[in-house]
Design a protein that fits this description.
Strand 1, helix 1 and strand 2 form a beta-alpha-beta unit. The chain is globular and about 40 Å long. It has a single domain, classed as Response regulator (Rossmann fold, 3-Layer(aba) Sandwich). The protein starts with 10 loop residues before the first strand and ends in a 14-residue tail after the last helix. It has a five-stranded parallel β-sheet, sandwiched between helices. It is built from six helices and five strands, in the order E-H-E-H-E-H-E-H-E-H-H. It is α/β, with parallel strands linked by helices.
Length: 183
Amino acid sequence: MIIPIDEQPLIALADDDTESARLLLRTLAELGSRRVKWHGDAERSLKLFAESFSDDPARWPSLIVVDLKAAPSANADFIGALKAITPEVAAPATGPLVVAMAPSLERETRTRLIEAGAAAVFERHAEPVAYQQEVANLIGFLDRHLAQVSAIAFETDDDDLMAAEPAQRSGEFPPFDLEQGTE
């Protein structure tokens, strides 16, 4: 199924390495994700995220990918700072998911990033085919999350319908407006 670009989930990237950012942007585009925005290094990204979360939630990214290499703790430090300035990030059911790219998936690395608030950790592979597969895994993770959030929203709508008066359940209510859906 082809999804129009303006309806695709927005992926935001915090990456302090130009070549790494270009590789991820290019790989995401090759895999069909066209709405990707690179925010730059940690300082610039934090500033832009703080500004964007004051906007309409429909404009928020669905996924924030953190791939900072300035220091071994850069990703965890950034995620902690991001959660501190944007409380929306701390609510994955309504706010964006935050994931980290790491040089390895060793237990200590994963644990540190998950404890900082990453929803998942993906390995930054040096080998192109493995890297592309890991980015595909990242997209799959986002797709599963969005499907789960949509299912929860649908269940909530269904519960509201069942609580409605019998006349309303019989179909005497306005049709669903697709324009009211969220990104």
